[in-house]
Amino acid sequence: MFGAGKPSGFPFAAPAHSPARPPIKCTVWVAGRGSGPVPQAFHGCGRRTLQRLSDDERRFSAYMGPMNRYQTVTADETVLRDGTIKLHGPDGFAGMRAAGRLAAEILDALVPFVQPGVTTGAIDDLVRQMTLDGGAVPATLGYRGFAHSCCTSINNVICHGIPGDKVLRDGDIINIDVTPLLNGWHGDSSRMYLVGEVPLKARRLVDVTYECLMIGIEQAKPGARLGDIGAAIQRHAEGHRYGVVREFCGHGLGRLFHDAPEVIHAARAGTGPELRPGMFFTIEPMINLGKPGVKMLDDGWTAVTRDRSLSAQFEHSIGITETGCEIFTASPKGLDKPPY
Question: Do β-strands 243-244 and 286-288 pair in parallel, antiparallel, or remain unpaired?
Answer without folding.
Answer: antiparallel
